[in-house]
Design a protein that fits this description.
Helix content: over 70%
Order of helices and strands: HHH
Largest sheet: none
Structural class: mainly alpha
Shape: elongated
Number of strands: 0
Number of helices: 3
Length: 78
């Protein structure tokens, strides 16, 4: 049986790592890290849904909300 979640997991992993690197660098472009985190958490949420992993879905739903707060603050609170 083919793992249809695999591409989503790799997108989630890659965008999460690059997002963390951007935020950690604390440079003017660091705000883009929150956009990458958002893509990561949404990708992982969909993958978790497909895998029927409820705990991972909950974690990624919470991360999605947190990342939306980060994007909001980056775009509108500066």
């Amino acid at each position: 049986m083919m793992d249809t979640s695999s591409p989503l997991k790799w997108i989630g992993t890659t965008t999460g790592v690059v997002g963390a690197l951007l935020v950690a660098m604390n440079i003017p472009q660091s705000g883009y890290g929150f956009l990458l985190f958002l893509v990561s958490s949404i990708s992982w949420f969909i993958a978790a849904y497909r895998m029927r992993e409820i705990s991972l879905m909950i974690l990624q739903a919470v991360f999605t909300v947190i990342n939306l707060v980060g994007v909001w603050r980056w775009l509108f609170a500066n």
